[in-house]
Specification:
CATH class: Alpha Beta
Low-confidence stretches: 5-38, 198-216
Shape: globular
Mean pLDDT: 74
CATH superfamily: HUPs
Structural class: alpha/beta
CATH topology: Rossmann fold
Radius of gyration: 18 Å
Helix content: 40-55%
Number of domains: 1
């Protein structure tokens, strides 16, 4: 790539990031405002349950869109698994409930088990920001329809997709009116422009389920 081409690529990336920041500023409500006090925000983080678990999407959400007192749900998405593949996948965090940590920590060997260390990091991060963590696994096909169902059922006001969901980006943009971002390969996020809100002033904080009902 030429020197000029490299400079152009950098400028384009900065443009995307700055647009994201402006969009975030538009959607976020100031702490302590009447609107933020009356709305219980629920942030859903959609992750490929077949890939190695990382706290990167959670950390981004905590630093950018989640207020204290909100709920964040880690959603692991995977197909129905055969026994050998299931055994490999179950070595990661998804089969372990967050409530199990307190019992596991009574045994010293938990500190040598990577999946428990990862879950403990999740709990520690959420405690630091005053957020209530949840974890859920969904299996089936087509997975993207199951994800949409979970977004509406959980009344998510923000959705953070990990980078492994990029192939379904257009699908989610056409189906959902909530605030959405997708992690990219550089560890940054790109805003997903979903279906337009009916009323941008009154719809801030509304869940996808309530907005979809209004459209039906």
């Amino acid at each position: 790539m030429t020197k000029g081409g490299k400079k152009k690529k950098i400028i384009m990336r900065q443009s995307v990031v700055s647009w994201n920041n402006r969009a975030l500023a538009t959607y976020r409500m100031p702490n302590g405002s009447p609107e933020s006090m009356n709305i219980t925000k629920h942030v859903l983080i959609v992750m490929d349950g077949m890939k190695e678990f990382t706290t990167e999407p959670l950390e981004w959400a905590l630093e950018n869109v989640i207020n204290a007192g909100s709920t964040v749900t880690l959603l692991g998405v995977m197909p129905w698994l055969n026994i050998p593949l299931s055994s490999k996948t179950w070595l990661d965090v998804w089969p372990v409930g967050l409530e199990e940590l307190s019992f596991v920590k009574e045994k010293n060997e938990w500190k040598s088990d990577l999946k428990y260390l990862k879950l403990q990091k999740v709990v520690d991060l959420c405690n630091k920001y005053g957020v209530f963590p949840q974890k859920k696994v969904i299996m089936g096909y087509p997975s993207r329809l199951l994800v949409v169902e979970q977004i509406t059922t959980l009344h998510a006001t923000w959705v953070v997709f990990d980078r492994h969901q990029k192939n379904d980006r257009k699908f989610y943009a056409g189906k959902l009116p909530c605030n959405m971002v997708m992690m990219n390969e550089e560890g940054e996020v790109d805003m997903i422009k979903g279906r337009p809100m009916i009323d941008s002033d009154s719809a801030v904080g509304e869940s996808p389920a309530s907005l979809l009902r209004l459209r039906s």
